[in-house]
Specification:
Layout (H helix, E strand, L loop, with lengths): L1 H20 L4 E5 L1 E2 L5 E2 L2 H9 L3 E5 L5 H9 L3 E4 L23 H16 L4 E4 L1 H9 L4 E2 L2 H4 L18 E5 L4 H6 L3 E4 L6 E2 L6 E6 L5 E6 L2 E7 L4 H5 L6 H12 L4
Parallel strand pairs: 1-4, 1-5, 5-6, 6-13
Antiparallel strand pairs: 2-3, 7-10, 8-9, 8-11, 11-12, 12-13
The structure holds manganese (II) ion.
Length: 260
C-alpha cells in the first residue's frame, strides 16, 4: 500500500512538472458577427488549434483600444479568420456591383488587431478573409470579384466540394515559410473565395499562386512569423487530414517562441 502511494505521488509530481515545462501556447482567433448578432468562430479553427497543442481563445469584434491591447498581451499568436468581403473604401476604391456582404465593424477590428499584433511581434496566421484583410491593413488592395475583374481565364476558386477537400493546386515559392514547413512546392488546397489580393502590400511578398496567377499565399518580408493563405487549412486539419496540419504545428512552435 505504501508503495502504491509513493508511486501515485511520483506520478502527480511528474504531471505538475510536465505542465510547467511544456508551454501550451494561447492562440487568439479573430471572431465574427453571426447574422443574429452573436459572436462566432467556425469550430474547425478551434479543433485545428487544439489538435496542434494550442489553447484556442476567441477574440470578439470590438472597438475598445485598451481591450484590444490586453487581448494581444494575453495571447502568444493570432489567427485571422475567414468571412465577409472587406469594404473597398478601406483600400480607396468604390464598391463594384459584384461586392458581397461586408461588416464595417469587423473591418475596423481586424485591421487594428493585425496591425497591433505585428507591432507587438506576435506571430500571425491569416486565412482567407484574414489573408485579404492583412493585405489591406498594410496598404494593399483586393480584387472585389475575381471573375469580374481578372480578364484572363481564371480557374474555379469557389469550390462546390466539402471544406476538407482540396480542389486546386498552389505553387509555392521554394524559399517561403510554407514550402519549408510543408516540405513541397506544389500543394493541393481547398478554395472558397471570390475576392483576391490585387496590389500586394508593401513589406509583403507573394509566396504562392494558382495556375491563373491568383495570389494564394504571402509572408512579411524579413518576418516570416507573419504569413497568410487564401485557402482554408483548418478544413482538412479539423477533419483529421495531415497535409496542411504542419501550418498549425508551425504556428504553435512560433507561439512558444521556440524558433524564429
Ligand atoms: Mn483559390
Amino acid at each position: 500500500m505504501k508503495r502504491f502511494f509513493l508511486f501515485l505521488s511520483i506520478c502527480c509530481f511528474a504531471v505538475v512538472l510536465y505542465a510547467q515545462t511544456v508551454k501550451l501556447p494561447i492562440i487568439g482567433i479573430s471572431g465574427a458577427h453571426a447574422s443574429n448578432g452573436a459572436t462566432q468562430v467556425n469550430s474547425t479553427y478551434i479543433r485545428s488549434v487544439l489538435r496542434a497543442g494550442g489553447v484556442p481563445v476567441v477574440l470578439p469584434v470590438n472597438d475598445h483600444p485598451e481591450a484590444l491591447k490586453k487581448m494581444i498581451a494575453s495571447v502568444d499568436a493570432i489567427i485571422m479568420t475567414g468571412g465577409e468581403d472587406v469594404d473597398p473604401l478601406k483600400y480607396d476604391e468604390e464598391p463594384l456591383p459584384f461586392l458581397e456582404t461586408i461588416d464595417p465593424e469587423r473591418d475596423v477590428f481586424d485591421i487594428a488587431l493585425v496591425k497591433l499584433a505585428v507591432e507587438c511581434g506576435i506571430p500571425v496566421l491569416g486565412i482567407c478573409r484574414g489573408h485579404q484583410v492583412m493585405n489591406v491593413a498594410f496598404g494593399g488592395t483586393l480584387y472585389q470579384d475575381i471573375h469580374a475583374q481578372i480578364r484572363t481565364d481564371v480557374i474555379k476558386h469557389r469550390q462546390q466540394a466539402p471544406l476538407w477537400y482540396g480542389t486546386h493546386q498552389v505553387q509555392l515559392e521554394k524559399n517561403s515559410v510554407l514550402a519549408k514547413i510543408l516540405d513541397k512546392t506544389t500543394v493541393i488546397t481547398n478554395s472558397f473565395h471570390h475576392q483576391a489580393v490585387k496590389d500586394v502590400a508593401p513589406g509583403f511578398i507573394v509566396t504562392g499562386r494558382t495556375s491563373d496567377g491568383v495570389v494564394e499565399a504571402m509572408e512579411m518580408k524579413g518576418n516570416p512569423r507573419v504569413f497568410s493563405v487564401q485557402f482554408h487549412p483548418e478544413g482538412p486539419t479539423a477533419h483529421g487530414l495531415d497535409e496542411l496540419f504542419p501550418i498549425f504545428t508551425h504556428l504553435m512552435t512560433l507561439a512558444r517562441g521556440d524558433t524564429q
